[in-house]
Every structure is written in C-alpha cells, then in structure tokens.
Amino acid sequence: MKICGVDEAGRGPVIGPLVICAYCIDEKDTPELLKLNVKDSKLLTPKQREALYNKLKKLSKDFKLAVISAKEIDSRNAVGTNLNQLEALKIAELLDDLRPDVVYVDSPTSPKAEKFAEMIFKTSIHKDIKIIAEHRADQKYKICSAASIIAKVDRDDEIEMIKKELGFDFGSGYPADPITKRFVKEHWENSLSQYIRKSWGTIKELEKLKGQKTLTEFED
C-alpha cells in the first residue's frame, strides 16, 4: 500500500510562494521513516531540517512539489478562489499524479478539519484515494512531518533565490517581521513588488493609507 503525507510551507507570508509537498512511501518502508525521527519542520532547526531533507529524498523519490507564486495567489484571489481552495486544488493535482492509496493532510480549515479532505476529493480526478485531513497532522503523522520538512526547505531555498535576484534582504517575508514591513512599505508599488502578495491585508492597509493621503492632498 502506498501512503502519502501532504503539508505546506508559506501560507502566512506577504512575500514569496506557497510551497506544497506530497511525499509518498510504500507501507513496508514505514520503519525506515520512523528511524529518521522526523518532526514537524517548525520544531526543527534549519540544520536539522537540511539533514533530514537529504535523508528523506534518499528514502523515497516518490514525491512532488507545487510552488504557487505570489502572482498566482493574487490572480486566483481576484476571481474568488481563496487560499484554502487553491491549496486543495494543487493538492488534488499532486495526488492525481502520485496515485497513493491513503493520504494524510495537515488541514487549514477550521473548526472542521475534514472539510479540507472533502475539498480535495471533489477536485481530484481519481476517486479511489482515501484522504484523512486533520489539524496538526504534521505533528501526529510522520509521513506528514516528512512532507513538512521538504516543503519548508524548498520554500526557504526559493526565498533565498528571490533575495539574490532582487538584491534585497526582506527578512522572513512574514507581515510581523520589521525588515519585511519596511521592504513592503517601500516597494509594494515598484518593480520589486513581483514577489509581494498584493491580495494580503498588509497591502490593503497600504492602499487604504495611500487613498486617505491622496484625498487629503486633493482637499488641500
């Protein structure tokens, strides 16, 4: 039996892509996965993640990634597709390619985690896959922890490539990061903004402030 874990990295940031990993192993290889002592990527240091990332890629070549750019997140949002729906769509595409028997997914839907499984199932072409979606699945199931690690390392690599391309250190990319805040405030309207999620609340606030300033200038 082929089992699969699915998790993502980068739902919350205002800068950079959302990366989803679907990681599969044959059930007979589960003891080898357990030996690696994988954990949710958030509970590991960057060095630990890198080491496990390489071991997981050796254990199984049967995995796929979806890298969803800021531009795609914005364009989908503009036509009414929210992040949960977009993530479910991309996961369904990964599972249609991988064709596992059982899938464990870290669910973002609240309060009903199983709603996310339904969203994926409806979008999937193949209906012979059992999908189990739970909150904190990346902490409950080692196969999800594996997907979490690969998604996180790949997203971190994507962020570093963006920083090199732009020639700016914009911090973590999360809205609460002071370095990110400054970068977004200074560059959300210029040519460096291609990696900024303009559908995020952070940008909506800047647009609102700009509108208020423009109105004040007009009244003056």
Condensed summary:
By secondary structure, the chain is of the alpha/beta class. It is built from nine helices and five strands; from the N terminus they run ββααβααβαβαααα.
Note down, in words, how this protein is organized.
With 220 residues, the chain is of the alpha/beta class. The chain is built from nine helices and five strands. It has two domains: 2-164, Nucleotidyltransferase, domain 5 (2-Layer Sandwich); 168-219, Orthogonal Bundle (Arc Repressor Mutant, subunit A), CATH 1.10.10. A hairpin with an 8-residue loop joins strand 1 (2-9) and strand 2 (18-26). Helix 4 (83-98) crosses helix 5. It starts with a strand and ends with a helix. 37% of the residues are buried. Mean pLDDT is 93; it is low at 213-220.
CATH architecture label name of the largest domain = 2-Layer Sandwich
Q: What string gives the helices and strands in order?
A: EEHHEHHEHEHHHH
Oligomer class: single chain
Identify the CATH homologous superfamily of the largest domain.
Answer: Ribonuclease H-like superfamily/Ribonuclease H
What's the helical proportion of residues?
40-55%
Mean pLDDT comes to 93
Range of strand content: 15-25%
Beginning-to-end CA distance, first to last residue: 71 Å
Number of strands: 5
Cα shape: globular
Radius of gyration: 19 Å
Strand order of the largest sheet: 3-2-1-4-5
